[in-house]
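Why do we care about 3D structure at all? Because function follows from shape, and shape follows, mostly, from sequence. That is the central idea of this module. The next example makes it concrete: a single protein chain, its amino acid sequence, and then its structure expressed as tokens.
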Amino acid sequence: MLLTFHSTFRSIPSAIMIAMFLGNAICEHLTIVSAASPQGIAFFESNIRPALIEHCLDCHSHDSDVSGNLSLDSRQDWEQGGDLGPAIASEAPDASLLIKAIEYDDPDLQMPPEGKLDEATIEAFRHWISIGAPDPRKPQQPSPDTEQTTALTVEQAQNHWSYRPIDHNLVTPRLHGSESGSIVDAWIDKGIQSAGLEASPPATRRVLARRLSLDLCGLPPTKAMVDAFVADRSDDAYARYVDRLLSSPAYGEHIARRWMDVVRYAESITLRGFILPEAWRYRDYLIESFNDDRPFDQMIRDQISGDLRPVEDLRETQRRAIATGFLAMGNSNLEDQDKTKLEFDHLDEQIETIGRAFLAQTIGCARCHDHKFDPIPTRDYYALAGIFRSTTPLKHANLSKWIENPLPLTEKQEDHYRELQRDLEDVAARIKSIDKRIGGDTKGSAKAIAVDSVAGVVVDDADATYVGQWKTSDFVKPFVGQGYQHTGIERQEKKSATFDPESLETGDYEVRIAYSHHANRATNATVTVFSANESKVISVNQRRVPSVDGVWHSLGTYPFEKGGQAFVIVSNDGADGIVIVDAVQFLPVAQSDQIPSGQVNETQTAELEQRRELQKQRSTLVTRQKRLQSELAARPKYLTISESEPQVETNIRVRGNPHQLGDRVPRGFLAAVGPAQEYANQIDSSSSGRRELADWIADRRNPLTARVYVNRVWSWMMGEGLVPTENNFGTTGRQPSHPELLDQLAIELVNNQWSTKHLIRLIVNSDAYRRSIDDDAQSRSLDPENRHYAFGRLKRLPVESVRDAMLFVSGELQRDRFGSTIRPGTKSDYDYEHRSNRRSIYQPVFRNSLPALFEDFDFADSSISVGQRSRSTIVSQSLAMMNDPWVIRRCEQAAHRLMANDESAGNQLISELYHLCFARPPSDRERALCLRFLERHGDDSIHTRVADLIQSLFASTDFRYLE
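And the structure:
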């Protein structure tokens, strides 16, 4: 089956020919589209998988919990079902237990337990089942290295490998014939020999140059770097090349992005697309920390309790405080009016993220009941919850909001902002005093004007007809009659007041409206005058003092006929403040210049003049107030949480219901893990316990922390962890392929100041890392998952590296570092246009609006901790490489760049292109076929052909994978 390429492809056969002959560089779109039901798989990936991850897999997955014996990890699991039977029935979608559960019609079968899904998601599940429930995921069969067990008690915890202390008495094996002195190779080679496997030879130096550059820095190497490395035959050439990459600023950017998957980094909240304007500071903290090789145990303390650990060095204090942004990036429903529930949902997300990120534990499974598999009782969950109940994560209002605190500054800067704050408070007090004098002085005589003292025909608010709920007041003076009506501060409903005089003689009248002005009034109250032959709409600014005697505002002169149309309607339609109605005066024109509106004596006139003067003073103060507020708002802030009144204990919530209280438990940690009680005893009533939480996790005696981090770094370098379930070291996770190596690497990490760079050097300097991906059939059959690392692993590049590599080839990659990259004035993330050519780590991670390529190529879900990204192969990826305008522009720009040096588009251009894309020269066959493609006859220009060739290379597996 052939697909239509984008419009620049003038010759489909030629483009396909290029894809077919570029060695391993085969465009996947030529085969993927012929797979069964690609549209169904695409529907699953875009609609069903995200819903499963967000709402289901925490309780129904082999990687976490298999509640009700129901796993939703694969099509086979759906059909097998759980205690109640199969979850889906393709022939009758509405009869499926899944649909019954998510529709919430059966009170005994309602999932997910936290609340009904929205109708769009429910309809997506119905449609998915109706098209046969396509699901590309392979079933996770219980494997020899997975423990399926019933609940493990705290006392039994050390029956499971991850809860046992790290073995410091390991003896590194010495194998006959092994030349490597690496502890990595000692254990890996032992496993290879034991399994009867043959190790692959090392990869070529060019392959290693590209592999190292992309694994360590996320960017392709330059031709000069590769050539120098290939030419350098000294014994330490490889180690020096590694050190050069580790010292590059790009290293910190790349490793930081890896960690950002784990901590669900984002710069917006799904709800209404709210922007987190200070989140970028946490990203920059990570980049700096990894580049500086900040000890990882210190990074743990920073991220959990850095704001509680100030030091004399200001920059260090700032870094520690900024790191706590980690705790504030949860994707919570800030509109939830049940604030207790919101707080428990928010802390549940914090506990779950901490558990997965640092301990690889699914702690959230113990919110409603004791963990069904791991030694995590509900008491331990609420012991941790008590710590976060003793913090303030959100500012509550009708719409709750995250917390941004002022960044610590120098004493001189702090004095400046304190002075600004004092000035602001003084100005606010003076404004308040003036407001009281203007609107609250009941001692003066200018307070109430009798209706019968006003000339003309007057309709008071007491005689008006109202739509909606209006409120009576006499607080702000002066007013006509006994008071006035106002709409109130809540303006959800449309309200109106109609002033209809009993009768008017035929003639021209000046129509005036009375209102009491104030700062909270509408600037655009809508007033409609209905006269003899017209209706006219006037917008009245009720914050201004009325122009006539400080009481009346003229709406103009209108003709009226006796018995005809004559009334005025005041409404709050579109109003930006409170709308006031007091009285409407119909004053004959012949009298308007002669008769006063009301009987205002000299004392009242003086008071009105005083009010005008006070209003001027107020206006000046408001201008100054805004300037001070603007200066204070410019003070650097950081995203964080705050300490609150410490709560020594919190109650278990029965079945997770925040309003159903059980026993009270003291604050503490997971009793089965490390020196938990030692640190729990240190928590007192003067603090939340976050410091002790961080210290317990970072303690070298904690058996999980170093193992989990070592495993992550191994995964980042080798493509998969020694424990493949990077976020789950519990009994439902996979067991380590090399437990002794995992422990020795953990010891190396701790003994070398928790240095990430030291750990990476150990891994990438090993023979295991340097092996080629070549393997023989026997090795593949004996070890199909390559758990023994006898041969190299073909690794898919993360989408960030693919994007950055395209910018690298086109010459457009901007290497600016740090700072916010959200365009000024952005209020929400909806439909945000990502225009920057900076590295991908600097693209705003908006939960509602990711770059298109990120959506297509398995970017991490930024609402949950992700240990290993999905590796989907779907048609939309191929279509993106063919049709995405951003990709096409990069190809065109790359063609301009290359042809600037070689207008003939010959051998030199092809060589340069291959070095840019693959860090190697083309083979003779590849060169010949590229030349044939570029020299073909046709109507398209040579520039177009070069751009087409570049696009074919971008779409190839050689470009998007790492051998």
